[in-house]
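For the sake of clarity, the format in which proteins appear in this thesis is described at this point. The record quoted next illustrates the convention:

___
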Amino acid sequence: MDILTYYKGKKEFNVFVASTFLDLAQFKKKENKEAFNSLLLKTFYQVKRYIAKRVSTALAKGNLPKGKYKTDDFVDQLFIEVYDHFDRVTSKEKLHPWLFKKADELLENAIIDEKFDDYFLKNIDDYAKPEWDEMEEKFSTDGDGDYVMIEELDDISYPKNDYVLNHVFVEDHKKKIMDQLDEDLGAEKIKKHVAMVLHNLPLPMRTVFQLATEYQFTLEEITVIRNQSLEEVRLLIEKARKVLEASFFNRYTSEK
């Protein structure tokens, strides 16, 4: 059985991770590294997925060289970092966000001199429907014909088809639009469109939005993970939401 299914959802899994804190602290105190890592491994389900997605995106966008980095490289390093610095976790509630924070630091250190193009953000209002279709086709396959990012869609589990739409169309008066998109497009089309738009967003914006929606972290927890202010996190999430909203309007409701 999938471990996330066993814990019913991401918030429940956060509670499970918190419940391991005291045992991990005892294992560390006794310098029982084998028992520590064995239990720690059980808490890595979500953070490992987070690392895999970030690595996949960095490779697809050319921020990391192909063939040099693998998800397991960062996971292995994370085991070392967590064991060496576990005493910095001050409470059980802070454990899961701290794991993401350490993973984020490892990834940020590896992605050197990253530059992202804001062309997409500046021109999103001008894309016509054929341009959206062409963009999705390019997004779906890389130069070698291999699928990029799409495989991530299969392991995102939400109770309704509007799993992201309800994070995009947050105002009550837009619920009818959300319901119509959900009915017209269906889950798979919505997933692919959202994944494509997120893929084109600047890394900080995409990462913060995904931490809030996919991993169900609070704004305060994201500030710890990303080492950013509450206002910075709030603005990044709001900007990502506005871009996603505009993309749905322009692609599926405009007359272009």
